[in-house]
Specification:
18% of the residues lie in helices and 39% in strands. It has 4 helices and 14 strands. It has one domain: Lipocalin (Beta Barrel), CATH 2.40.128.110.
Amino acid sequence: MRWLQTALLCAALAACAGAPQPSETRGSEGTASATPTDLAATYAPLRAAGGRVFALNPARSEVRIYAFRAGRAARFGHNHVLSAPDFQGFFHMAPDGTAASRFDLAFRLDQLTFDDPQHRAALGPAFASAISAEDTASTRNNMLGDNNFQAARFPWVRIHSVQISGDAPKYAARIAVELHGQTREMLVPLTVSGLPEKLLVEGALVLLQSDFGVKPLSVLGGLLSVQDAVIVEFKLSGESP
């Protein structure tokens, strides 16, 4: 059985490192531009037209992304937590009410932080295992590489509100998420407080990697793999100049 133990150990290391998978052939659904639309310029005329525009403050906000191990040998792998320490975002509270309001958020994949020890420690036993700096760097390089999220080609993740409904403090937002050169729409609940002096937004959404043309890692016939679903949680703080 030594060969099986060795195979499982190799698979575990591969999972932690985000081992690259063969690239998929995808239909043409648009390619992310080198830089995002200048959101500040986009929201300037909205401010002039009335209502209030809030600039999101990354230093007072949190964006967390959770990826999970799977398969019969999942105990040999690790769950991962990523964060976006820097992003650009704005919210416009329109004078005509919720339906006319909008928000945008954009961040770069290559600026994500992987498996910060403090973030992992705060999540309890399922994230408690220590990951070395070398393994963290390998995970980052492979997850963002050419055979996975292709961050060099598609560096930006963009979230744009399509429609907002509800009333304070509970809202439902239909959003368009652009990732890996593809865009998908989904409905997410938001809790908003602090208005009109400031903006505090809390919410979460679930993304399927496969919906955006990314194949989750799977080795040894699925004995060890990464779950397709990832969770994105956010607590966003905005200020109105």
